[in-house]
Known about the structure:
- The protein is 39% helix and 16% strand.
- The chain is of the alpha/beta class and 292 residues long.
- Helix 7 (170-178) links the parallel strand 5 and strand 6 (187-191).
- 5,10-Methenyltetrahydrofolate binds at residues 47-48, 51, 94-97, 119, 139, 234, 248, 267-269, 272-273, 275-276.
Amino acid sequence: MILLDGKKVSNDIKNEITEEVKKMKAKGEKVPHLAAIIVGNDGASLTYVASKVKACERVGFESTMIRMSNTTSEIELLDKIEELNLNDEIDGFIIQLPLPKQIDTQKVLMAVDPDKDVDGFHPMNFGKMALDMSTFIPATPFGILELLDRYNVETKGKHTVVIGRSHIVGRPMSILMGRKGFPGNSTVTITHSHTKNITQITSQADIIISALGVPNFLKAEMVKDDVVIIDVGITRVADESSPKGYVITGDVDFENVSKKASFITPVPGGVGPMTIAMLLKNTLLARELRHK
Ligand SMILES: Nc1nc(=O)c2c([nH]1)NC[C@@H]1CN(c3ccc(C(=O)N[C@@H](CCC(=O)O)C(=O)O)cc3)C=[N+]21
């Protein structure tokens, strides 16, 4: 079994980006600037945005975190987005999800200037992705592709099973794994809450990408020998014995599934850190787009 070490690879990527930023500075160019809007006080969301800001500092990017209250109206958020669209200092920005229920997420994501949409959530960018055009690929799927690439995991002709059809992971992942090129050229099955007999499907998979959010859902009996496992689950499970009062738990029963797997991502330290590294990569791309 080979561990797909997202923590290590994300560090390599951050070092590569740091070098790029040094070159920009040496040429007297403006460094990339990422902004993040966070609405409300969700603990996990605040942690993620804080790690994004920290990652920006680490590679030498500028960053701005914009906090808005839990009672923010849709109009107020749309106004803020328009402000960032027009602000020439900002190369790219994200709106941390999930949003409070009074706000229509799809409407908000459509208000982002596609050229600053470093999350790749605007329908224009999603469409470009599906059509093999160059664009921002959502950070989590992009991170998974990068991990498969750097560990040279064969995807061509393999049966990839994606668990979950969310707009930010499952759906784009199912498209990307079936595209031409590497990593891609897989035969893809996407499964979701209405899928019948999921074990029958997962047990035929060469590659499983699980983005379900149900701790320890995928058991050893559900997979075949030498399967490649990508665990996107990051559920906080209460645990009094740990210092933070919770442990981050993936969708995969790692202890038992890892014994059968050829490659597997750990949680934490797998897909999560890659997501942050690829957001930086998209921000660098956005900066290059705007100053070409
Ligand atoms: N607009 C938007 N863009 C996102 O990319 C986005 C989002 N909203 N909403 C929530 C999800 C989730 N997400 C993660 C990022 C990093 C870790 C990460 O670094 N995880 C660490 C553990 C971090 C911890 O201690 O909680 C790890 O897996 O090793 C996890 C999850 C980005 N998301």
